[in-house]
Amino acid sequence: MRVLIVRLSSLGDVVHAAPVVADIHAALPGTTIDWVAEEAFVPLARCIAGVDRVVPVALRRWRKQWRASREERRAALAELQSERYDAVIDLQGLIKSALVARLARVRAGGVRAGLANRTDGSAYEPLARWAYSQAVAMPPRIHVVERSRRLAAAALAYAPQGMPRIDWTPPALPADDVAWADPRAVWLVHGSAKTVKLLDETFWATIATALVAEGWRVMLPWGTDEERARSQLIGALADAGEAVRVPPRLPLDRLTSVLQQSAGSIGLDTGLSHLSATLGRPSVQLFLEDKAWRAAIDWMPRTRALQATAAIPITPEFALSAWREVAAG
């Protein structure tokens, strides 16, 4: 059997979808699994053990360069259609992902499966259903990992067993990255594309200062120029010299290798925080929106999800207390 998973983006969503790979292999040994991802997330999808082939697409870039990307689009379509699948499973539920699922080739008697409805807190476009031969209904309030697991299980007629599992197999560290793979470094994941998720620089500087005082080092990652400037400001406010560092922006496969060898992370509800937690590193996840119930990596024993409420705001000491707990094992 050959299965195609369609989960194009983003970092956190690819992480949340990844447990379906281990589920499928456990239920249907010998299955070959391919994955379609946006070009930026291809290196991450290649780190998921059990994924045979990752098909890159660049829908975001192609929309801006439609004429210039004509030959590249043809090549990508040829690669997508180079295999026939027993099942194509769209875990995203958007028109763009449904289009990719529709363009993939399915064997006679095969299935194209996707979501039948929106679930709370998740993007969904009802027109995506036209691409599916099987639309799977979900309860409105469901964890995003559980939603993907149920969808894949319904498409392939098995029952998922046990807790979610992701077997990450990142590449060996290149020499240039060894300096960033610090087993005493806590990664403070302060950046987010959504301003509602952000905490101010003094919050993070307070945490960084306390961690250094307790014998840890600190890494301040970034993904945009604005986030790099924030990292530099947080480092300056912490005033801890070389104990607080701003690493370079790394491709996701190399970043996965580095995180796997780090002390762990304290971070917002973002992809990097979810990646750290699923790598089994001690992780504290900070949810400013009411989303811990649907996105926290709550099955990992060394992860703590802190949900802000009107009565209990997230403070530096609250986050540090949770870190001390998970770091102690």
TrEMBL record:
Its EC number is 2.4.99.23. GO terms for molecular function: ADP-heptose-lipopolysaccharide heptosyltransferase activity. The lineage of its organism: Bacteria, Pseudomonadati, Pseudomonadota, Betaproteobacteria, Burkholderiales. This is Lipopolysaccharide heptosyltransferase 1. It comes from Rivibacter subsaxonicus. Pfam families: Glyco_transf_9 (PF01075). One of its GO terms (cellular component) is plasma membrane. Keywords: Cell inner membrane, Cell membrane, Glycosyltransferase, Lipopolysaccharide biosynthesis, Membrane, Transferase. Gene3D superfamilies: Glycogen Phosphorylase B (3.40.50.2000). Its main location: membrane.
